[in-house]
Amino acid sequence: DTPPAVLVSTWDFGVPANAAAHAVRQASGSALDMVEAGARVAEADVTNASVGIGGFPDREGHVTLDAVIMNGRGDMGSVCALEDIVHAVSVARRVMEATPHVILVGEGARAFALDQGFETTRLLTPAAEAVWKRWLETSDYAPRANSENTDWPGGASDHDTIGILGIDLTGAMAGACTTSGMAFKMRGRVGDSPIPGAGLSVDDEVGAATGTGVGEDILRVSGAHAVVEAMRAGLDPDAACKRVIERLARLRGDKIADHQVALLALDKQGRAGAFALRPGFTYAVTDAAGETRLVRAESLF
Ligand code: SD4
């Protein structure tokens, strides 16, 4: 039926991200190069209010970015609560390649990025600042399904975290996940996205998974890792994602009544799959020829 996928990524903005990543693949770039290039497309887009520049700030007005990148052999790097640098995913990659560590946070991550030659940029755009100021009038923090970062006055777009998974021409896998996190989060809050095993997991023997939605929920079930392990046990990507969403629903019951969580997976044979708590999650699937389709995931509710 459908040809094997070589790239999957979350939400509608996965389409341009996959296009950039596929171009890297065609030029024989590594899986890491592919997913980094894709993630950077979303980070650079000022019109999306939940990744990179243009992201909504925390409740004190600071845009703080979380990102992770990894290959399928355990090489990984991550930054949490990084400020003033657009391409958090590229800083994460430098953490992977130029330090003995996996995760750098906050001031230390920023100092490392500057040391590596990254330039500072004001990440809080006038549009995002205006929405934050309106939010301050009520300061009501209540994540809403598919729209924790949308429906805000000011016309912010409804895109969310980008997670992108890829297979290169050699068959090796990699993934990346990058976000400004939940809009109007507490200062210092870190979500699932930059945490290996929660927002992203990649294993060349099995496949890869990523997540989007309320990060606290994904953290509670080690979402991405749980999906990869379910695939290792023999489930296909759709079924693996479904199993972990069902587990989360059993674990949390009414506490996740208004939340959205979506998990997305790609196994090493190129089978793509996803499952969400509620309707509305879309993901982009690209095959080796560069054909991309946008798929609407099934959901529990
Ligand atoms: C977070 N999971 O920081 C991210 C946000 C997100 O759709 O994916 N929103 O919790």
Automatic annotation (TrEMBL):
Keywords: Hydrolase, Signal. One of its GO terms (cellular component) is cytoplasm. Substrate binds at residues 189-192, 212-215. Its EC number is 3.5.1.26. One of its GO terms (molecular function) is N4-(beta-N-acetylglucosaminyl)-L-asparaginase activity. It holds the Pfam family Asparaginase_2. It comes from the Bacteria. The record marks 160-161 as: Cleavage. It is an enzyme of class 3 (hydrolase). CDD domains: Glycosylasparaginase. InterPro entries: Ntn_hydrolases_N (IPR029055), Peptidase_T2 (IPR000246), TAT_signal (IPR006311). The keyword Signal applies. The active site is at 161 (nucleophile). This is N4-(Beta-N-acetylglucosaminyl)-L-asparaginase. It comes from Brevundimonas halotolerans.
